[in-house]
């Protein structure tokens, strides 16, 4: 009896695990046969490679396909490789692909009703209500906050970069800073936020939608702004400093640009620093190409859909946009393993197809904090480089390996650098 029960259970389990393994075969979409239970993402689960690298290897096995299929454990995944197909998914047919893979869980976990994770109409209402915060005028008004941070950072570096756990507690009232916290607090006062629905994919009809501004909704947005804004920018800064430390030539050019910028602006950093330091901006862009923080951008199909070649996909289909693969593809970036900021200077930058350069994503869901991130990274870099020259610490490898199982592209060894005081730094202390 027990044996029968065990066999039935095992058969049932086998069925549950493998029941979707013919998904791509049935649709004649190129794919590799999945490994039992692990699908095609085994190296991630076995902690051998990062997700970005797994997708890179997988995509490279299908050099001529515009999109391919795979299995993440037991679930089918669509991987778009061609820029036109990526454009279709993230921009043109965004109404169908507006989810982020976890729509089934949003209602179970309050923190996941945040702008990054949510989908459909609640995503659109949140996005519409938050976008004005990132307009040029608002960012210009907020720049004094970044400037203040730069002064603090300057002092902190002077004190040999001792880290202090500083926590500012703020009351539930408008602070007059017009920053993100003020915006979220204003929702609390008005008790709800109103916006438009996602346009219906067939009729293009748009309805008015309102969301109740519950404490959970507000907390969820604060969590995601900290998570999406802090870790991403600090990781990118780390890689940028590492690449500057590695190349004398790049470092020389960057330091000259920083010194000349400060000389022109009386030792003050301004809102327009991004356009005023084109080479350093190109170094950041190339860093984001070489080390995209998200090696894969997720989307979820929110309704049944037919691809241009007639392939029918079911609602709930996961989509993994293979950012790391695209950024390291010689077809789009000659000698992709060479770190060359010039790719992002002047005319060369204009040649890059936006759907193969995706450090901040694309389409209606692209990173809402992109310009803010650039502004704060640029200011941080100026603060460091005006005083210090960088060298790799002893034992630091010239090529980084990435951690498996980390959602973001992160170095296994960390990044250790020597900060060496530059001659004449006293001339470049920030004006008070
Ligand atoms: C170097 C820094 C950053 C990088 C590399 C980065 C990258 C990304 C990427 C790849 C996405 C997904 C885009 C897509 O699905 O098409 C994203 C979304 C997002 N980012 Fe950033 N980000 C950075 C900084 C920031 C900052 C500073 C903030 C906030 C101030 C922020 C807030 C968000 C939010 C809220 C989303 C979700 C947008 C949505 O789904 O509508 N990010 N980011």
Keywords summarizing the entry:
single chain; 432 residues; alpha+beta; Cytochrome p450; 4-stranded mixed beta sheet; two-stranded antiparallel ribbon; binds protoporphyrin IX containing FE
Account of the protein in words:
By secondary structure, the protein is α+β, with helices and mostly antiparallel strands. It has a single domain, classed as Cytochrome P450 (Cytochrome p450). It is 42% helix and 10% strand. The protein is built from 15 helices and ten strands. A four-stranded mixed sheet has the order 1-2-8-5. A two-stranded antiparallel sheet has the order 3-4. A two-stranded antiparallel ribbon has the order 6-7. A hairpin with a 5-residue loop joins strand 6 (305-306) and strand 7 (312-313). Helix 9 packs across helix 10, helix 9 (215-246) packs across helix 12 and helix 9 crosses helix 15 (370-385). The N and C termini lie far apart (83 Å). Mean pLDDT is 90; it is low at 164-172. The site of protoporphyrin IX containing FE has 25 residues, from helix 9 and helix 15. Protoporphyrin IX containing FE binds next to helix 9 and helix 15.
Quick structural gist:
This protein has 15 helices and 10 strands.
CATH architecture classification name:
Orthogonal Bundle
Number of strands: 10
Arrangement of strands in the largest sheet: 1-2-8-5
SS strand fraction? 5-15%
Largest sheet: 4 strands, mixed
User: What is the CATH C level class, in words?
Assistant: Mainly Alpha
Shape: globular
How many helices in DSSP terms? 15
The CATH topology turns out to be: Cytochrome p450
Report the bound ligands by name, code or SMILES.
protoporphyrin IX containing FE
